[in-house]
Amino acid sequence: MRVLGVDPGLTRCGFGVVDSGRGRTVTPVAVDVVRTPPEMDLALRLLRISDAAEQWLDLHRPTVVAVERVFSQHNVRTAMATAQAGGVVALAAARRGIDVCFHTPSQVKSAVTGNGAADKKQVTAMVTKILGLSVAPKPADAADALALAICHCWRAPMMARMAQAEEAAAQQRLRYEAKLAEVTKSRLKKAGTR
């Protein structure tokens, strides 16, 4: 599986691609940060991020895109900008029929460091170690994008098993309800003939 991890942001939007191997093996493919100047019009900044996302999708051909979910931030303006940047990336992927998964920052930190409250320094250190990089990815947005991709590689099998279990439970519930309706109908029919 090839995963494009995206750490969305208007000023800096991190893109990182990894390939997953057997077990928890992940191999780095590419990483970069797209920057837009704060004085640029919002629509043009989003267009620049969208164009970059489309280039990354066409160049690296990921099987899935992992985007950081805006979970909660004290600064509403920052949260909106992050959500907008993530949205244009998700849209570019959806247009190509590529699945998009969202992971919260604590899910990513927990997957990569084992601590959902880890700081950026710890995340960068673990990403560097996991991917066997000789130099830590900089800025932190680049490391965060790779962390998102790693997180998805490691969480995807569990997410697939959970989806299968939920589907099996839903099918079982439907069979049970159908059988219950059949039994009820039969009992009502017998009661009506007495």
TrEMBL record:
<dbReference type="InterPro" id="IPR012337">
    <property type="entry name" value="RNaseH-like_sf"/>
</dbReference>
<comment type="subunit">
    <text>Homodimer which binds Holliday junction (HJ) DNA. The HJ becomes 2-fold symmetrical on binding to RuvC with unstacked arms; it has a different conformation from HJ DNA in complex with RuvA. In the full resolvosome a probable DNA-RuvA(4)-RuvB(12)-RuvC(2) complex forms which resolves the HJ.</text>
</comment>
<keyword id="KW-0255">Endonuclease</keyword>
<feature type="binding site">
    <location>
        <position position="7"/>
    </location>
    <ligand>
        <name>Mg(2+) 1</name>
    </ligand>
</feature>
<dbReference type="GO" id="GO:0000287">
    <property type="term" value="F:magnesium ion binding"/>
</dbReference>
<dbReference type="GO" id="GO:0048476">
    <property type="term" value="C:Holliday junction resolvase complex"/>
</dbReference>
<keyword id="KW-0540">Nuclease</keyword>
<keyword id="KW-0227">DNA damage</keyword>
<dbReference type="GO" id="GO:0008821">
    <property type="term" value="F:crossover junction DNA endonuclease activity"/>
</dbReference>
<protein>
    <recommendedName>
        <fullName>Crossover junction endodeoxyribonuclease RuvC</fullName>
        <ecNumber>3.1.21.10</ecNumber>
    </recommendedName>
</protein>
<feature type="active site">
    <location>
        <position position="141"/>
    </location>
</feature>
<dbReference type="GO" id="GO:0006310">
    <property type="term" value="P:DNA recombination"/>
</dbReference>
<comment type="similarity">
    <text>Belongs to the RuvC family.</text>
</comment>
<feature type="binding site">
    <location>
        <position position="141"/>
    </location>
    <ligand>
        <name>Mg(2+) 1</name>
    </ligand>
</feature>
<feature type="binding site">
    <location>
        <position position="68"/>
    </location>
    <ligand>
        <name>Mg(2+) 2</name>
    </ligand>
</feature>
<dbReference type="InterPro" id="IPR036397">
    <property type="entry name" value="RNaseH_sf"/>
</dbReference>
<feature type="active site">
    <location>
        <position position="68"/>
    </location>
</feature>
<keyword id="KW-0233">DNA recombination</keyword>
<dbReference type="InterPro" id="IPR002176">
    <property type="entry name" value="X-over_junc_endoDNase_RuvC"/>
</dbReference>
<dbReference type="InterPro" id="IPR020563">
    <property type="entry name" value="X-over_junc_endoDNase_Mg_BS"/>
</dbReference>
<keyword id="KW-0460">Magnesium</keyword>
<dbReference type="GO" id="GO:0003677">
    <property type="term" value="F:DNA binding"/>
</dbReference>
<comment type="function">
    <text>The RuvA-RuvB-RuvC complex processes Holliday junction (HJ) DNA during genetic recombination and DNA repair. Endonuclease that resolves HJ intermediates. Cleaves cruciform DNA by making single-stranded nicks across the HJ at symmetrical positions within the homologous arms, yielding a 5'-phosphate and a 3'-hydroxyl group; requires a central core of homology in the junction. The consensus cleavage sequence is 5'-(A/T)TT(C/G)-3'. Cleavage occurs on the 3'-side of the TT dinucleotide at the point of strand exchange.</text>
</comment>
<keyword id="KW-0238">DNA-binding</keyword>
<keyword id="KW-0234">DNA repair</keyword>
<dbReference type="GO" id="GO:0005737">
    <property type="term" value="C:cytoplasm"/>
</dbReference>
<dbReference type="Pfam" id="PF02075">
    <property type="entry name" value="RuvC"/>
</dbReference>
<keyword id="KW-0378">Hydrolase</keyword>
<keyword id="KW-0479">Metal-binding</keyword>
<dbReference type="GO" id="GO:0006281">
    <property type="term" value="P:DNA repair"/>
</dbReference>
<keyword id="KW-0963">Cytoplasm</keyword>
<feature type="active site">
    <location>
        <position position="7"/>
    </location>
</feature>
